[in-house]
Write a structure and sequence with these properties.
This protein has 264 residues and is α/β, with parallel strands linked by helices. The protein is 37% helix and 9% strand. The protein has a domain of 145 residues: Rossmann fold.
Length: 264
């Protein structure tokens, strides 16, 4: 039977004690507070929180309060950005996980809504295994969507999807329509960097060669939009969230059957 409350923030400590008896999967949503193009609200962490909430409703997982900040250094030059130092983010997430481990919980699943956090979290879940003997998990929902799914939803084979455009605009139109400013949408601005192509904010290419080198958003996209928001819609956002929930529920149901305690 699914509990009436699944968000830890809404539980009393007595209710938390009761919920913890079943050793539930604990979802720890996290994202960023940074620009996503001129039209979108800064807090993409709200999408991770909404997803975790929806998954918990179907799986009896517990949802921890969302972590609203990311490493985010590449976006720090845009107003409203709140980036954390990597060691700060690592320490914050470690302490959150450690708090649950203290109460005997061993199925911790990070719901990562910002790709920049991934290298830090990959290191963290390995350290948790080595130092706390707990195999925490991590998922990155924006990597769940298949090429076939995107072709069906967008009606084209290669939609112009990138930071500052979609998926984020459609998801915000679906979840938080009053916060989206479609009147501020601008076409993507993608610059090279001293004659090199910026594949990401840490990878540059030239003549087919890959060079790891850090650049900032402003240096390769003055308006923060690398992808197009012209194709965004609330209907597309609803389809994406539906697919997120389908996959997320499958993963949580599978994750909770795994043995996550490392043998001594």
């Amino acid at each position: 039977m699914v509990r009436q409350k699944w968000q830890l923030s809404q539980m009393t400590y007595r209710e938390a004690e009761e919920a913890f008896k079943s050793n539930p999967v604990v979802l720890i949503p996290m994202g960023s507070t940074e620009q996503h193009g001129p039209q979108c609200p800064l807090g993409d962490y709200r999408i991770a929180a909404a997803l975790a909430d929806g998954i918990a409703m179907q799986t009896s997982a517990v949802v921890a309060p969302v972590i609203p900040y990311s490493e985010g250094a590449a976006a720090r030059d845009f107003a409203g950005a709140v980036p954390l130092r990597p060691e700060t983010l690592y320490g914050l997430v470690w302490d959150v996980c450690d708090a649950f481990i203290r109460f005997g919980l061993d199925h911790l699943l990070l719901v990562c809504g910002d790709h920049g956090n991934v290298p830090i979290l990959e290191r963290l879940i390995r350290d948790l295994k080595d130092e706390r003997a707990i195999r925490a998990g991590m998922v990155e929902p924006f990597r769940w969507l298949s090429k076939a799914f995107l072709e069906e939803v967008y009606g084209e084979t290669s939609p112009e999807i990138a930071h500052g455009g979609d998926f984020i605009t459609s998801l915000n139109l679906h979840l938080f329509p009053d916060d989206v400013r479609l009147d501020l949408v601008e076409r993507p601005q993608r610059l090279d960097f001293q004659g090199l192509n910026a594949n990401t904010f840490n990878q540059l290419t030239f003549d087919g060669h890959l060079l790891h080198m850090a650049v900032d958003y402003r240096e390769i996209s003055p308006n923060g939009a690398l992808g197009s928001a012209d194709m965004a819609s609330a209907d597309i956002g609803a389809e994406i969230m539906k697919e997120f929930l389908r996959i997320g529920v499958d993963i949580v149901n599978r994750f909770k059957t795994l043995s996550t305690r490392k043998p001594s």
